[in-house]
Amino acid sequence: MNGGTISIRAVFAIVYTTSISSIYFALGVIGGRALGLTPVVFLVAGLFFALATMTYVEGSSLHQERGGSTVFSRYAFNELVSFVSGWAILLDYAILVAVTSLTATNYLGAFWHGFAHGAVELIVTLAIIASAAVVNIRGQSPRRLQRRIAVAVADLGLQVLIVVVGLVLLFHPERLIDSIHLGSAPTWRNLIYALTVAVIAFTGLEAAASLSGEIRASRRSLKQIVGPGTALIVLIYVGISIVAVNALPVEGGHTALGGRYVDAPVLGIVQAFHPHWLANTFKYVVAVGAFASLVTAANAAMLGLSRLGYALATNRQIPSALGRLHPERGTPFVLIGLAALLAGALVAPTDLAFLIGIYAFGAMLAFTIAHASVIALRYREPKRDRPYAVPLSVPFRGGSLPLPAVLGGVLSFAGWGAVIAFHASARYAGFGWLAGGIVLYVVYRKVEGKPILKRVTIPERALRVEAMEPEFGSILVPIFGTPLDDDIVQTAGRLAGSTQDDVEAEGATIEALWVFEVPLALPLDARLPDAQLKRAREALARAKAVGEEYEGVEVATATVRARRAGQAIVDEARRRGVEAIVLAAEEPSRIRGGALLGGGGGPLENFVGDVTKYVVRKAACRVILTAPAAEAMPEAKAKAND
Length: 642
Hints:
CATH superfamily of the largest domain: Amino acid/polyamine transporter I
Oligomer: single chain
Radius of gyration: 27 Å
CATH architecture of the largest domain: Up-down Bundle
Helix content: 55-70%
Number of domains: 2
CATH class of the largest domain: Mainly Alpha
Strand order of the largest sheet: 7-6-5-8-10-9
């Protein structure tokens, strides 16, 4: 995942601030339900987090595009499944912005109790939400990312200090054991509730995955995120929950963790420290640290939302008007503004438990889809390079089955079922949000005349101005390293830019593809000659330069390995959901200036080569053939054989 603009340290900061920040608000809600089993709940949540991390890192490294789990599910299943995952996470991002902003205000109550009550609480919370929106409309910068890293490091140090001091001063094993009466304290219903809402932390994975393609990361650093990075988060989870149960013990089936301190549980923990001066010192330090961390988490959640919104808009899963980009900043300001309004509406009741319950509905659904997608991609794209692969995979039905992803998927689906069964508010709000989104998606696709299940893309430029419908939303162009490459790329560019003289035109995405034909005598993953790799890189770079000369046209490049070029072209066109293939006839042809064919073939097959015949016959989309005059072909053939 090299070549991006965001370092692995910044990625960890995003994951950490949105994950560990949940301690500052979810600990009270979970502790009030799980009671003495709170550390066990956080341990299970940590293990679940580890499974999800492995899945998200493999999925993000496999397809390095913005969008998080929507990208995995797009390639594994279809656009509708991808939309469902993205739509669920959109709501979760808005809830996370609301929850972190509200809780940040509650921690300011350490300085003045008025911050944590009434109109002042609401005003300060709305101000934090507005600030997060403004910061993300302005866009990210290296300085902001450095500040985020600094906050994450400082918060890590503070939480480790709380754990160490708390264990030294307060730890009594009997407080953990004597308060547990499974079935009554806590009840099974409350325990399941606590387990499901513990996933409030995991949106940090989505926020980081949504930056895929912008990240500078080696294979080693990806393993460090999964290994030591995850272990650190789990240790913090469990350590603070153990200190919490000792600081605010369960008495009579209740704990102040889920009562008096439910809105600012870490303040309750440190106020149990002794002597008094130590408790007071920690009280104010925690108030400042929690406020900074929660505000940073609100910004990280809004960043994830903006990247996800961009991905949904460019793939025509939501109307382009919602994904409109700021003319100078290039950020989806409309969607960010709407998310801020939604987050503001969500905090109006100031009911933390209600918000966390709704969050769990979308999170569990999205994680289920993410795990299933990574499993499916092991079979759909077994030969694709994976900078990181989920370990503990076993051979199964001709593929490699990742057992951690299977376990994660089963647990996620079970958790989603538990949310539906035990959270009435989450059930109604979640299904209502989901139904509204699906109606929006289907109606929008139908009105635009686009397929429900296939991918349709538009370039970023289309989100900067009012757009008109292009002739083709996405075009696949196979590149062969011959002089004909310029001709077919220019044909695709004209199709994409044929109406580009008008500033309101939209353009399309050209996907330039080089196919390495590997002989049967060699394995598909055999090492390729350096000269062949160099030729492919140069040809794709040339195609990108030629295609992007056309106004509003964006060219993406890719390589694949296959036994037969024709089959690879057809498979990639189907997988990518393109609307057309522009192909150069590879032998003298009667075609001048291009011809448009529907999938299934036609009489022109008699005048072209085997690759073209296969593509015309098998492609599910339109195929556009283009070739120069016959006298130009010998030169092209000679060049191809060099």
